[in-house]
Each structure stands twice: as structure tokens, then as C-alpha cells.
Amino acid sequence: QGTLEIHLVGLKKSVKITIKDNGSGISESHYSKVFVPNFSTKNSGMGLGLAICKKIAESANGTISFISEVNKGTTFTVTLPRIENN
Predict the structure, then answer these.
(1) Which fold is adopted by the domain 4-81?
(2) pTM confidence score
(3) Across-strand partners of 10?
């Protein structure tokens, strides 16, 4: 049974969302392809999820990045600018 942790941190000028799992991880040979549309290491799915996440983050002037270790898990971090409410 895997675990998924989601953390949200409000910073002065941005919001950071961290999603961490303890799954199989991503091999280094796939790092450059993770955000490419239609790339998947699975038999099912279309390989669009992370490409869409990247597009959404960047269209909001944010970023998405990850660190991963095979057989230990992956952590994705999405950082988005704070919107000022007046």
C-alpha cells in the first residue's frame, strides 16, 4: 500500500504545493521526458497529466519540478505566485 503526502505552504510572494509518494520512482533516463505530452511508462493512460500540470503552472507564472529516487518515490513541487487581494 503506497502513501501520498500533500503539503501547502504560503510564502510571502508565492504558494508552494508539494506532492510526495513512496512509489517506484522515476529513473534518471526518463527525467527529460516526464513533462513531454504522450510520454508514459505505463500501459494505460495517455501520458498527458504532467504535461498539462506544467502548462497550467507556467501559464500562471509558476513552476513545477521534481526529485525522484528509484524504488523510494518522487516529490513534485508546484510553486505559484500569490495573488494580491485588495
Answers:
(1) Heat Shock Protein 90 (3.30.565)
(2) 0.91
(3) 15
